[in-house]
Design a protein that fits this description.
By secondary structure, the chain is of the alpha/beta class. About 40% of the residues lie in helices and about 15% in strands. Bound molecules: guanine (GUN).
């Protein structure tokens, strides 16, 4: 029987801590602002953006919403970002991805000032993380570190295996685990003997993008298993990259889907926005 790592509860704790901090800042005359930009009306993106705005409202961050039409040009979007970069009332700029195909994602990410890059996607933020300098950290991996720490899981000296090497999750995850003195292996689609490598893990982070791929045959008895995946199965039920029913009996701790990693991403986005206001304003 594994300990179930409750991301809903832990993300709520973080949001409540931030809410207090924001109230204190407000009492001292400081208001925090976040710009949330969506180009087009992809329904999944609209849900994510709505949740981000709701979280801002809960915590006491003023959110400015920019819902731009699908036909918005790259120049128009970059001009808006440029204006927000200069706006002192805005501490975080979030452009919901993906952007429409006629807009270069890379240009958008690089246009956001690293001082307002609350997603942690700017090359400067990524570089800062890899050399241990101050900067924003991608929200999902940052949230996973919080899940581990707040559940009493020690990282130092542990064998940590990350499955997946995306810029948003796998790579920053590896850097963060390394920063916590874990011994880190990053695996991917070309990794040989994936099962054997995963079976070495004390902490296994699954960010593969394939529903229920990681079953008990990948997991060492007593391992901590973190599931980053989120998929809808044929019955419209949510599931992760981990086959929960197979793995739960042998893991020492495991995150569920939903209610594990998912809620942490927004909590850490809020954390980054508050940090931005504290870090870069005098
Ligand atoms: N689209 C899917 N996830 C994310 C995220 O974390 N940030 C942004 N900006 N877009 C996303």
């Amino acid at each position: 029987m594994a300990q179930i790592i409750d991301g809903k509860k832990i993300s709520q704790q973080i949001k409540d801590e931030l809410r207090e901090q924001v109230a204190e800042l407000k009492a001292n005359g400081k208001e925090i602002g976040m710009a949330v930009i969506q180009v087009g009306s992809d329904p999944a993106s609209s849900v994510y953006v709505g949740n981000k705005k709701k979280a801002c409202a809960y915590i006491g961050i003023r959110s400015e919403s920019y819902e731009l039409p699908e036909e918005t040009t790259e120049e128009e979007l970059l001009a808006l970002i440029e204006r927000l970069n200069k706006d002192e009332r805005i501490h975080g700029i979030l452009v919901q991805l993906p952007v429409p195909a006629h807009i270069h994602e890379k240009k958008v990410i690089e246009a956001i000032s690293p001082k307002k890059d609350v997603d942690g996607f700017h090359p400067q933020s990524v570089g800062a993380l890899s050399i241990g300098q101050k900067g924003f950290v991608s929200c999902t991996p940052a949230g996973i570190i919080q899940l581990l720490k707040r559940s009493g899981v020690e990282i130092e000296g542990k064998e940590c295996v990350v499955i997946g090497r995306s810029n948003i999750v796998g790579k920053p995850m590896a850097m963060l685990l390394l920063r916590e003195n874990g011994t880190v292996t990053v695996t991917h689609s070309k990794t040989k003997n994936l099962k054997e490598v995963c079976k070495r893990a004390d902490i296994l982070i699954a960010a593969v993008g394939r529903p229920k791929m990681i079953d008990a045959s990948y997991v060492k008895e007593g391992a901590v298993v973190i599931d980053v995946g989120i998929h809808r199965n044929e019955n419209n039920k949510l599931c992760g990259d981990v086959d929960f029913d197979s793995v739960e009996p042998i893991a020492s701790a495991i995150t569920p889907v939903p209610g594990g990693v998912g809620p942490m991403t927004i909590a850490m986005l809020m954390h980054n926005c508050v940090e931005s206001a504290v870090m870069f304003d005098e």
